Amino acid sequence: MNIQEYLSIFISSVFIYNVILSRFLGLCPFVAISKNTRQAFAMSAAVTFVITASSVVTWLIYRFLLLPFNLAYLRTLSFVLVIAALVQLIEMVIRKTSPALYRAFGIYLTLITTNCAVLGAAVLNIDMFFVNGRAISGSFYYSLFQGFCMGLGYTLAMLIMSGIRERLELCNVPKPLRDFPLAFIIASVLSLSFMGFSGFKF
Amino acid sequence: MKGLIKEFTKGIIKENPTFVLALGLCPTLAVSVSVVNAIGMGVAATFVLLGSSVIISLVKDFIPNKIRIPCFIVIIATFVTVIELCLKAYSPVLNRALGIYVPLIVVNCIVLGRAEAFACKNNFLSALFDGLGMGVGFTLALIFISAIREILGSGQILGHTLIKGFEPVFVFGMPSGALLVIGLLLGLFNLIKNRKA
Q1: What is the pTM (predicted TM-score) of this model?
Q2: ipTM for the assembly
Q3: Least CA distance to A177: which residue of chain B?
């Protein structure tokens, strides 16, 4: 266990390279479902869960299937299919085992199938924790942890955004800027404040 | 012939994937730092759109309706892998600049959106022109956004300095500048649409 590594993964994927505000992954639900805090929270919980699960599965597939058979070039293709199947599977399991949980984020699960944050996290894990086609030591746990942290970063951005948008509901916004354009402008200001975490480079 | 030209031109202005349909914004924001990156991304996405539209329109009669989405994704992912390997082999610099956004073309809503909305209902030729038109529309939108960002963010265009002594606004080269530019542009397009209506 290398605490320092884990801490740096946490800080960089939650704050510095926030999935939404600095990597621009998963923007569609970010603008579409961030109008109310409860929905935003349910969506982010679903995303966090799926990213963590898919980080584990894609790591295993890459390490034990694609690498030994020299099929690394099939990465994109296999990951997309595996993630889609995984989301379906999770949805079925949740529906059978816990109807309350299914009501809370079941409908959002189907939306996540082609969310770029999930595939992005999987690809990033492979890019970062495999060097020259070999897993670096502890890379499985790093991938798991990084997936989870990216989910946390997603949740953080979603919650801040939905809080702001709830308050803006009563404001008088110029008509052409309503909805999407305003959401992007708010995100821009948020992203500006998140830039403080990485420091300014001139 | 006239119909085909219409399929081609509608993607450029009337149904522009970025500004009018607001699809595929993630890569648009991420790679629009410089015009060179934008052109690279646009060409890659156009290739994928063109290839997947044509193949899907050819095999649409053989694919059972219930499993069409996974089939489309496999076809799209194949073309993405082709362009990924080509970029790696012939243009490593561009590949590094575009990073994870090349494999992410798979989940770009424009590609799957066109497959589902157009290619699986139309014949080979219209799908070809539709894919090409959408790709060109996407590329032009990318170039437009990245030109604004590159001029304001570094005072250059395609690496050439435009105005001597211009103090660049660094924020436009950063993620927050991208969000600001796209927000204001979408607002501008809404304004134009409202004026017309």
Answers
A1: 0.86
A2: 0.83
A3: B187
